[in-house]
């Protein structure tokens, strides 16, 4: 399985009056880690578009376990779990200093043909090529 990790210094503008990250900002952190993961196999959003596909998020699940705090460093790990018919990515956000688990999440993306605007029921061959895997 492929994975990528990023470290984020929690900025002041992401927290509320209690110095806790507002829940909506976690989705932004997932996006940054997802982009890093996609770049790791040369299929980021620019590459996707150039290959004739867009990959919208069709499902997002998130479980808040702990709180990220202002000025803390957090690690966001994104792991590719499924790719045959969709991209399913699991995430784990932890506090760098303590190792404490803060958030678990997953996203699902499906391929849409840019020209026809139709959803693909199988991932296109270009994804398998980028991953260095045979197409099923």
Topology:
Layout: E1 3-9, H1 25-40, H2 45-50, E2 53-54, E3 57-64, E4 73-82, E5 87-95, E6 101-109, E7 112-113, H3 125-131
Antiparallel strand pairs: 1-4, 2-7, 3-6, 4-5, 5-6
Describe the protein in words.
The chain is α+β, with helices and mostly antiparallel strands and 136 residues long. 21% of the residues lie in helices and 35% in strands. It has three helices and seven strands, in the order βααββββββα. It has helices at 25-40, 45-50, 125-131, and strands at residues 3-9, 53-54, 57-64, 73-82, 87-95, 101-109, 112-113.
SSE sequence, one letter per element: EHHEEEEEEH
Q: What ranges have pLDDT less than 50 throughout 5 or more consecutive residues?
A: none
- Report the count of strand segments: 7
Overall, the morphology is elongated
| Spatial strand sequence of the major β-sheet | 1-4-5-6-3
What is the strand content? 25-35%
Individual helix count: 3
Structural class: alpha+beta
Distance between the termini: 17 Å
Radius of gyration: 16 Å
Features:
3 helices, hydrolase, 5-stranded antiparallel sheet, 136 residues, alpha+beta
What's this, in brief?
Helix content is 21%, strand content 35%.
């Amino acid at each position: 399985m492929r994975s990528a990790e990023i470290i984020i210094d929690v900025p002041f503008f992401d927290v509320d009056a209690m110095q806790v990250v507002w829940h909506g900002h976690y989705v932004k952190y997932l996006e940054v880690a997802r982009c890093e993961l996609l770049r790791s196999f040369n299929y980021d959003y620019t590459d996707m578009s150039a290959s004739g596909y867009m990959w919208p998020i069709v499902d997002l699940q998130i479980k808040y376990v702990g709180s990220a705090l202002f000025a803390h460093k957090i690690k966001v790990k994104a792991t590719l779990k499924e790719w045959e018919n969709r991209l399913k990515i699991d995430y784990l956000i932890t506090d760098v200093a303590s190792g404490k688990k803060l958030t678990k999440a997953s996203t699902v993306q499906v391929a849409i043909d840019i020209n026809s605007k139709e959803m693909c029921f199988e991932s296109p061959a270009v994804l398998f090529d980028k991953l260095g895997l045979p197409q099923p």
